[in-house]
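Reopening this ticket.

The earlier resolution said the output was attached, but the attachment link was broken on my side. Pasting everything inline this time so it's all in one place.
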Amino acid sequence: MFRLLFLTVSPETPKIKHLYSLFTIRPLTNTSLPNSIHQSNQTQFNSSPIDFTAIANSVISRCSHLLLDPTKKDKPLSKFSLKTLLLDLSYITPDIIRRYGRLSVLKPHHVLQILLGFESQYQKLTFGPKKVGTLWEFFKLSDKQQNAVGFKHLPKSCEVMASMLNKAGMLKELELLLLGMELKGISMDSAEVFCDLIVGYVRTGDIKRAVFMFDRIRGQGLVPSLSCYSVFVDSLVKMKRTKLVFRVCMDLADQGIDLSTWEKVHVENLVKLLCTDKKIQEARTLIRKVTAAGFEPSNSIVNDIACGYCAKKDFKDLQSFFIEMKRIPDVTTGNKIIHTISRHFGVESSELFLQDLQHLGFVPDEVTFGILIAWSCRKRNLRNAFLYLSEILSKGLKPDLKSYNALISALFNKGLWNHVHDILDEMRDQGISPDFSTFRALLAGYCKARHFDEAKMIVKEMVDCNLIELGSVDDSLSEAFKLLGLDTLVVRLKRDNNVGLIKTEFYDNLGNGMYLDTDLEEYDDKLSRVLEDSIMPDFNSLVIRECETENLTGGQLLVNEMIRWGQEPSLPVYSALMKGLCKSRSHLDAVTGLLEKMPQLAGQLNEETLNSLVQTYSKKGLTHKAKTIFNEMFRKGKKINNETCTDLMIELCRRGKFKDLSDCWAIAEKNNWLLDLKKSNSFVKCLSRKKMLSEALHLLKSMLISYPRLEVCNMFIGIFCQTGYANISHIMVEEILQRGCDLDDVAFSHLLEGLCIEKKFSVAFTVLDMMLAKKLTPCLDALIMLIPQMCVADKFIHAIELREVLLEESKSTFLVDGALIKGFCMTGKLGKADCLFMDMLKGSFINADIYNVLLQGHCKAKNSSKVNELFGLMIRKNIDLSLPSYRSFTRMKCAEHGFFYSLNLKEFMLQQTNSCSLVIYNILIFYLFLAGNCSVVNKVLNEMQEKNLLPDQKTYDYLVYGFSQCKEFSSSMLYLSRMIDKGHRPSNRNLRAVISHLCKIQNLKPALELSRKMELRGWIHDSTVQNAIIESFLSFGKLQDAENFFDRIVDKGLVPNNINYDNLIILFCGYGKFNKAIDMLDTMLRKGNIPNSTSYDSVISSLCECNNLEQAMDFHTEMLDRKLKPSTETWDILVHSFCKEGMTDKAERLLYSMVESGEIPSKEMYSIVVDRYQFENNLRKASDVMETMQRSGYKPDFEAQWSLISKLSSAGEKEKKKQGFLSTLLSGSGFSLRKHNS
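Inline output:
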């Protein structure tokens, strides 16, 4: 059957031979790149050297038109004339530009008016740098006008231009403007523009230019604003430009500016930076200066400077700083100071310093005294330690557990083990439970004092507190030794059985002499170290231990406790914790906190940790933090890994931060960055999706040199095809093949599929032929998309031949058969589709899509019997009807007025699926309306209501428009009102239909009510809606209401970009409201729409009727500039008006202008100018116009000629001249002077 089908495709064409016997079809099983890329046996790169750089360069060259910035494709503005630039600007301020369109030379005050008009519209209209660029070119060109001798821009013009350039971000142009002003001696009274320029440069990251401009204005004696200083300082602090930012801040403090309102964060960040760089004295000097200017330092500033002095151990200056500022540190900083003094100068010195702080108002906490207790215990000064404990209790504070641990250890060190129980009782009274470190100190103390029975009791208590577990056979004393880090095989407790007890060290409860069988010196040293650690915990070792066990939360808590006790982690500990936190990637807040709390340690992190930080922040999307560290690494010359660059740039690209991406790319290239092949897929795909094609092709060039070429080519070809740039892939394939390289079937299949997706089927056919010629196998997905298009392109033979080849190769062809059926249906060859379908029915399986495609084809052909037959078959085989098939089926039945059948079909679909019930109802409603059957629609709506199925936006849109088309406008209005009340936005088509109808039947009140609802919701009023309402107002004679409505719509910004007021302009001119007509015309221009010539004609006629001839000529000139053709009536009324007002020379110029524009003035127009010149006794002008009139083919009236001749004669002109003139005049009229004389 199928061979018969093949022979009937084209009777004239003989059957072609099989394409290729080796042809096979394969699915593209995995399209992810580059993991799925493989090289076929048929693919090879020639052994001869191939210049892949040349391939990449050629691809880039051929794709250059795709790489251009769309905003830069236009002709450079510098090539345009002043008149052209003015015409472009007239779309922004048409009313102002119009005044100067006829001037040959613009004066400085004209330029100022144009600039001010542009500035006034800047906030109202949405236009970008392109229009400001036009204004800038106009500004420059106006300075170079011919015949404009001595032209010099007004200072105000320069200020406005500078403001516009700054708002548009055109910083280089702004700087050129300021430089030109300086050269021309135009001074500015304020530094505002310079400040804007500095801020602009700062925000674009160009700090060098910002510094240059800052120094320049300071050199001119101008003072930047406080906001400018703030932005500048913040940027310099972020870049860690310590010396420069200090200079800028000192300059600010010297200006006498009131800094009482200055945000504290600016100074806080600077002080932190200075202290991090160990510039404590500079920080103090700065604070002294800004405080004198009214700035109130925050606690953070005081603490940072205090910590700086503390790090330098300069406590004398620190004390004077507190006294000078009359401020005190917070308790955490105070504890750090006390700890540092105690460690380096002794407890006595720290106590004295604490007393001075208390005189200033410092209030110590229990930790403050706990530090003093610990250091006193370390120095074996128990008396002072207990005094500090008494001080804690007397102040109503609760001693810290670490303080009790220190006292316990100190008592053991002093041999006062019998008083330890007093401390434990005190702890219990305070509600403080011993922790593991407490018990460990007790064990160490009792074991050192050889009170092993007490040690055993401590072990038992630890078991009761669930701190340890002790087996039934475990020895309590051995467990105590283990907890203290002693080897139970080395440390043994023995009874002295010798006569005289010569080895006895102590006696047990039974009076037995006992001794330790171990190295007693080593034993005592270990126990002493345990007691010392209990006095002053070694936080660093504890944090390291937590990091090793990956207990990062515990490590963070220990660091916080460490800071509370006035200590800081060491750099190795800090680095270890940061590495662990980065690896977990769930502690980013902790990482950020550690970076901010300890900037000095952060600045000392090694390259490995910094790279890890950037990668972690990048992968979490925190690009700002990642880039800050990245830039700092580059500034310090740290090595930046490939992975770090890649992770950061991928995230910057994904988030669309192209400026930052460009900066990082430049830094990465300086670090010899090479994109990792494993991550290249996601990065290149992101670049392509963001239309950064130049960067993507740049990567292609570098990767072709460094990685396997086939793999790279396949990846880029696939990505470009996936992201809508199959044309680039096609160019790549062409270039690679031209250089003598072969590509595998993967590359060709990607290209084929991409071309199909982009519907470039003619190119896809060529690529398919190329693949088949190379005996390469196209992917099945592409082939299925291509076969229907082969049918559409009348390539049935090729499509069928492909199927036959598959059949001969014993390949499964049901997908290809489905594609063929789709192609047949698309081309209306349903008989062939049916034949193939029947052939497929003999097989074991037919895809449901094939049934649906065939059914849709027969629905399109309106073959109802065939559709019913096929639908019955689908029901018997339990095959679902797809939504597109249901849509086609319903459309056909409704068109046949089979409404009952359509309702049953709807029920069938509802039984088939519940997930898209509303869609099914919407389809039915749409086609019922299309068939004009409103009654069935109402029945369907009642059914929906019974099922509590609420209409959606599409339902309402169909109802509103459908009822309006059926002329049931009451129902249309009802559903439109419900739709709006339920928060849905009607389509513009529906709003147009309803409002136009209401206005047409002169029912203006509901139309205005609907318009008010639209206004409240900020909905655009399109041309049809506005025209209908305003025309309705005019028909009722409500001109003022019409004007008010128009003004309100414009003021609220509800005018669409494609607005058209042409008809209204004519109507308002007819009512004598030409000013409002002009407003409408200007509104059209501001929206980028040029009114038609009739609108201009109407305005000009109205202005002439009011004798406003200069304004009429402005519009007339604008018409000609916009290539619009004034009507003959417009020319005529202008000429007559000027003659009437005695401005005959202007009327004459209009005649010549008309001729230049390709129009021929009427005889009456010439005649009225001649007559007017005769009336003015300007006979020479009259004769010139009459001569021009003759050249235009008109014959003047004989009376008019002789009237002019007689006047010339009476004027006593010379005969010779008269003869010459008369000869010319009469000969042009068919007369001869000689004949007349005879």
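Reporter confirms the inline version is readable. Residues 1-48, 1213-1222, 1228-1238 have pLDDT under 50 and may be disordered. The CA atoms of residues 83 and 101 lie 8 Å apart.
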